[in-house]
Write the C-alpha cells for this entry.
Amino acid sequence: MIDPDTRAAEWAADAEAEAAEEAEEMPLSLRLSIADALTLGNATCGFMAVYFTTTGILIPHLTGSTETGMARNSAATAVILMLCAAIFDLFDGIVARKLRSSPMGAELDNLSDLISFGLAPAYFVLVYGMVAVPDGAQQKVSAVAAVAVLLAVVLRLARFSCVTMKDGMFQGMPSPFGALTVVSIVLLELPFVPTLLAIIGVAWLMVSRVEYPKPRGVLAVAMLAWIVGAMGMLAAWAFDAPGGAFLLQTGCALQVVMGAVIPLFATARRVNTFRGNRRENREARAAQLR
C-alpha cells in the first residue's frame, strides 16, 4: 500500500517538472519582462528615427525637392524619437532594479542603445553631410565623423559590459547623452569645421575615462525634465512657432555646454582628490618621522 503523503509528494514533484518544461517551451514574447519591453521601445524609437531621417530629409534632397517644412518636421521628429529612446533607456533601468529583468536584459539594453544612440545619431550626421555640405570632400569627411560616432558607441557599450565601475558612476560620456549632444551640434548649424571638431570631441568623450554620474534620484528627475523640455523646443521649431528657432538654438547650445562642462568638473574633482590624497600621505609620513 502506498502512503498518501508519499503519493502527494510525487504528484507535487511531477507538477513542478511539468511547469519547468512549459516555462522552457514558453514563447519568447511571454518571457520578456516589463523592463525588456521598455528596452525594445528604445530600439523601436531608434529605428524610426533612422526612418524619418531617410524619408523626410535624405530622399527629398536626392529627388531635388525644395520643401523645407517637411525636412524640418522630419528632423524634429527624428530627434524627438531619439529623446523618447532616452526616456525608455532611463526607465528600463529603474524598472529592472525595482522589479526584475530577464537574463537577456543586459544584452537587449546594449543592442537597443547601439541602434538608438549609435546608429541613429551617426546616420543623422551622415545625412547632414550629404544635405547641408555641398563640397564632395567635406561630405566624405562628414562620413568619417559619422563612423567615429558609431564606433565610439560600439566601444563604449562593449567596455561597459566588461569594466566594473564604482557605484553611481559611468566611465566615459553615456551614449544617450553623447547622442543628444551630437544631434544638438548638427542642429546648431555652425560652420563645417567647428561642427566636425565638436562631433569628434563628443566621440572621444564617450570612450574616454572621464567619470559621469548615473542618472538616479534627483538627477534622473532633472534629466527627464530636460528631455521633455527639449521635446517642446523641437515641436515649437517644427511647427514654425514664434520664437521656435531661438528656443531650439538655445536648447542645443545648453546641451553642448553641458557636454563640455561636465568633463571639466569631473577632471577638476579628480585633480582635487589626487591632491588631497597626496597631502594626506605627506602628512602621514611627516607624523611617522616625528
Summary: Residues 215 and 223 are 7 Å apart (CA to CA). Residues 244-289 form the longest helix (46 residues).
